[in-house]
Specification:
Layout lengths: L7 H12 L8 H30 L4 H32 L13 H12 L8 H29 L6 H30 L10 H12 L8 H31 L4
Helix pairs in contact: 2-3, 3-5, 5-6, 6-7, 6-8
């Protein structure tokens, strides 16, 4: 959608007509590698810094939570950019004419091909917009999630548990989507750049899209984006909270 500027319905129909059900799972290997690198790094850094700073200053305010989330996103994106680049290209291939496709078979084929044709630095093409997006995404998602949980617990209406994590994750996913979709649109255009000229920077790409396609085009694909982001946020944060609880019980409880 962000590449060909088509609607969700048209994209689904064309993908099914051209590639069948398998077309909806293109890019699953780089998607898994991205989660193993980007997600584990960002969550690990966020929780480590959150606990460390809290131990010194007590309850954190919202700006501090957002700042920690932004830094965590930068760290995660730096590690996960190669997998993210291959994922974007594999998904984008299905929407491009045959002569412009890169035809990566899987994530390791993509890594090898980029290494040979573009050099090591090619694996980090689009790193700046990816890090910018990750900074916005994680500042909004992780910071908002932590803050909303505290606010709702303070009302006395919620106790620590799955329902609290679910509601907080849904809200943080919405905030994240609103703020990050414009950057994601620009990042996708940069990473799928096929012209011989150098791709534009993130700010230039956003400005060009807004000027030539209209400001509202910056939120093209918002519905499918949030449809993916919301359940992803719920599963991630609920699972993380449960794992943290188990960790505290097993390793942080005082020995009597």
């Amino acid at each position: 959608m962000q590449i060909l500027r088509s609607s969700l319905r048209d994209t689904i129909y064309r993908t099914y007509q051209e590639h069948g059900v398998r077309g909806f799972y293109v890019g699953w290997t780089p998607a898994i590698l991205r989660q193993l690198t980007y997600t584990t790094t960002r969550l690990g850094v966020y929780n480590t810094l959150y606990d460390l700073i809290s131990s010194y200053v007590g309850r954190l305010n919202y700006p501090t939570m957002v700042t920690i989330g932004m830094f965590s996103g930068i760290c995660g994106a730096l590690v996960g950019t190669p997998a993210d680049l291959i994922y974007v290209r594999m998904v984008g291939d299905a929407q491009l004419p045959p002569e412009k496709r890169r035809n990566y078979r899987h994530v390791f084929h993509g890594l090898s091909d980029i290494w040979k044709t573009e050099g090591v630095q090619g694996l980090w093409r689009g790193a700046l917009p990816t890090m910018t997006r990750a900074m916005i995404v994680n500042g909004a998602q992780l910071g908002t999630y932590s803050r909303v949980k505290i606010m709702w617990k303070d009302t006395g209406l919620f106790e620590e548990g799955i329902l609290l994590s679910f509601c907080s994750a849904m809200i943080s996913g919405f905030v994240m989507s609103v703020l990050s979709v414009p950057v994601d649109v620009a990042k996708t255009r940069i990473q799928t750049w096929t012209l011989p000229s150098k791709p534009p920077g993130i700010i230039a790409a956003i400005a060009t899209i807004a000027r030539t396609e209209g400001v509202t085009s910056m939120w093209r694909g918002f519905l499918p984006y949030y449809s993916r982001a919301a359940p992803n946020a719920v599963i991630t944060m609920v699972t993380l909270d449960k794992l943290r609880q188990i960790y505290r019980i097993l390793f942080l409880q005082p020995i009597e």
